[in-house]
Amino acid sequence: MATGFLALLAAAVAAGYAIRQENRHSDWVIHTYHVETVLIEARRLVEQKETARRGYMLAGTPAFLDSFERAHAALVPQIVELRRLTADNVHQRAPLAMVVRRLAELDAAQRATNELVRQGRGAEALRLFHADSGLLRMQKLRAVFDLMAREERRLLALRDAEQTASRHRFSIVAAVSILLFLLVSILSFLTVRRYTRDLQRSRVALADLNATLEEQVKERTADLALANEEIQRFAYIVSHDLRSPLVNVMGFTAELSAATGPLAELIDRAEAEAPHIVTEEARLAAREDLPEAIGFIRTSTAKMDRLINAILKLSREGRRVLAPEMIALDQLVEQITDSIRHVIDDRGVTVTIERPMPVVVSDRIALEQILSNLIENATKYRHPARAAEVHVSAQATPGRVIVAVRDNGRGIDPRDHQRVFDLFRRSGQQDQPGEGIGLAHVRALAYRLGGTISVESQLGEGATFFLSLPPTLAIESA
């Protein structure tokens, strides 16, 4: 079809070119006819002038003189028009110049005889006419006019032939175009019919799929809910099972820590009473190595305890039933900033809330946890060279509500925009307390609310977190 349409386009271009050529040849044919018409009219006016002169000589009637002047007045523009029309033809320039010269000579002779007749000297005018050979002048003019007419007839024959050839070429192009149009039409019809059949089959298949789609969605949803419950149960069991040995490790660590005191006293007494039995290795082990190892164990167990608590928190949050309610976002953000006002003031952060904000129907607890985490993070990772500022805004778009939390802090490397939402993953300088759980919790909550969370940031230019939520939380999405 594409090839056919390209061929049609080429045929249309060729037809347009053929039409343009035919019009050009037609214009030249019309031009030739115009030149012949002007030649005939000029010749007629020359004959009329000569006839009027002779009538005036013979009868002396002023009407002949008036006819002479009218013919002369009409002849001048005809000669000007003839010069304009033949300006492009080198073969007509010399004859036209000869016509102009002989017309001027003839006009002078005619006016001389007319003046003699007007003075009553008719016999003298007649002798001058015979002596000047006016008949010979007219014959020469007629010969030049005939020469110019033959040139125009020659051009007319050539241009008629060119016009005929253009019409022939246009007929061929038109015939080819009609054939191409018929071929493309047949091909288009067959193609459309084939696609119509395919479309009909697709519609039937789609109807069959739609008939079973709802059931498939219910089955997949049930499978996903079951898998989610299994994951949450597994996380809960694993966290619970990890806590038992962790408690034992912490208990034994406490006992070891308590035992370091008597051991250190024993080393001190041995050094005082029998210093030769105390080696340097024993002294370092009791006073430095053992307390340091116990400190490392305590730090690691404390970190593991926090991680287990985070996993348990995520597991419990996934099992909690969401309760959608109407929430004014500006009021919720204001309550969150008031609840962490002491942290905001201690860190010297300016928090601004852009009002008005939309109202959404969502789970208050989950939404409060999300925004609390984002706002507190925005106040935490400040840029050392400028005063910290946090701006919270929200706007409604078709089908979504976008909440933006923007700060002017240290920013996030674009390579870490996705990993900051992973569990236990952090970005940038680790100079703030935390285990990399907050944003993972935020993403999990956002998904449960039917939304998404994303970030736009550059290092040193601050960060903006975008929370996209549905205006109304459906229970099915929970």
Account of the protein in words:
The protein has about 475 residues and is of the alpha+beta class. It has 10 helices and 7 strands. A hairpin with a 5-residue loop joins strand 6 and strand 7. Helix 1 (about 1-60) packs parallel to helix 3 and helix 3 (about 90-120) crosses helix 5.
Main attributes of the structure:
478 residues, alpha+beta, 7 strands, 73% helix, rod-shaped
Approximate strand percentage: 5-15%
Q: Estimate percent helicity.
A: over 70%
What structural class should be given to the helix and strand makeup? alpha+beta
Give the N-terminus to C-terminus distance in angstroms: 51 Å
Shape: rod-shaped
Uncertain segments: none
Rg, Å, rounded: 55 Å
Q: What count of helical segments does DSSP give?
A: 10
Topology as H/E string?
HHHHHHEHHEEHEEHEE
> Overall pLDDT, averaged?
80
How many strands in all?
7
Major pleated sheet: 5 strands, mixed
Name the strands of the widest sheet in spatial order.
Answer: 2-4-5-7-6
Secondary structure topology:
Blueprint: H1 2-59, H2 62-85, H3 90-118, H4 122-132, H5 134-273, H6 280-319, E1 324-328, H7 329-339, H8 341-347, E2 350-353, E3 359-363, H9 364-380, E4 389-397, E5 400-407, H10 438-448, E6 452-457, E7 463-469
Parallel strand pairs: 2-4
Antiparallel strand pairs: 1-3, 4-5, 5-7, 6-7
Helix pairs in contact: 1-2, 1-3, 1-5, 2-3, 3-4, 3-5, 5-6, 7-9, 9-10
Describe the structure concisely for a colleague.
The protein is α+β, with helices and mostly antiparallel strands.
